[in-house]
Amino acid sequence: MNRLKKIKEYYIWGGLFLTDSYQKEGIELSEKEGAKTPFRFDVINSLLVKKNTANYLEIGVRDPSLNFDKINAQTKYSVDPGLEFKSNPVDFKMTSDMFFEQLRTGKVLKQSIKFDVIFIDGLHLAEQVDRDIKNSFDFLKEDGFIVLHDCNPPSEWHAREKHAYRLSPAGNNWNGTTWKAFVKWGQNPEIRIACVDTDWGVGILTKGHTFEETKGEVSEFYEFSHFEKNKKDLINLMSFNQFCTFI
Q1: I want to staple 146 with a disulfide (CB 3.0 to 4.6 A). Which of 152, 205, 218, 227 is the partner?
Q2: For residues 235 and 184, is the Cβ–Cβ distance under 8 A?
Q3: If you ran DSSP here, which 8-state letter would residue 92 be given?
Q4: What does 120-140 look like in DSSP terms, one character per residue?
Q5: DSSP-H helix ranges across the chain
Q6: Cis bond upstream, residue 38 (ω within 30)
Q7: How far apart are CA 18 and CA 50, in angstroms?
Q8: pLDDT tens per residue, range 84-104
Q9: Alpha-carbon distance 119 to 56, whole Å?
């Protein structure tokens, strides 16, 4: 049974399949995005390859086999409270807020530690992502990178706030509102950002001048329709090959 048929069966509700155009578009966009390569770990490893003794931190691991285990870094640390993956084989079984609080007081690792790359893939809500970015910059090397997952949701349904609402055209696919925090930080004159157009949008932030400045104005209320029309300029959307020319 192919995935499209499974999705159609999943959406049977009250004996009727929801066949409106939004449902069809959502399914097609999910299929298209899910087929893109390379993956987030390929982007991360391309940033780490130039580091001889790299320190890597991953926030929001869930299943380590999906990303963490594929990262090529001399020293790696992982943070996850284990809400979605009960075995939770990570270094620090706690929320990112608790981790950074304990890191500042020396309860975990050394207060002086700095990371080359910090990957954020925790709770996909703008307020939390914004806080994770702010905390991460405090422990990032001057030439380091913060990487975010889910920065380029293909539709407003994928960018919904509640993951549990799975009768939307996006089904179980969920990018949340990570994009809002990413766009916000892209307006900071001291930060440069770019988003690799693969794996649901792999966003990169740095204090260096690796990328060009973002263009375009952010809409006052962060409407998705405005983001959708202007994403290329707002988040420096580029292909993986283009990204490689900058690093």
Answers
A1: 205
A2: no
A3: B
A4: E-S---HHHHHHHHHHHHTTE
A5: 3-10, 21-34, 40-48, 96-104, 126-137, 178-186, 224-234, 240-246
A6: yes
A7: 49
A8: 998 999 999 999 999 999 999
A9: 8
Q: 131, 146 in Cβ contact below 8 A? A: no
Give residue 24's pLDDT: 85
pLDDT in tens, 144-173: 999 999 999 999 999 999 999 878 899 999
Q: How far apart are CA 193 and CA 12, in angstroms?
A: 41
> Rounded distance, CA 72 to CA 57, Å?
12
Neighbours of 153 (CB within 10 A): 27
Q: Compute the C-alpha angle 236/238/240, nearest 5°.
A: 140
Amino acid found at 222? Y
How confident is residue 245, by pLDDT bands cut at 50, 70 and 90?
Answer: very high
Strand partners, 13: 16
Round to whole Å and give the CA distance between 122 and 195.
18
**∠ CA 228-60-194 to the nearest 5 degrees?**
35
Is residue 21 very low, low, confident or very high in pLDDT (cuts 50, 70, 90)?
confident
Q: Could you tell me the CA-to-CA distances from 92 to 20, 127, 231 in Å, in that order?
A: 45, 22, 35
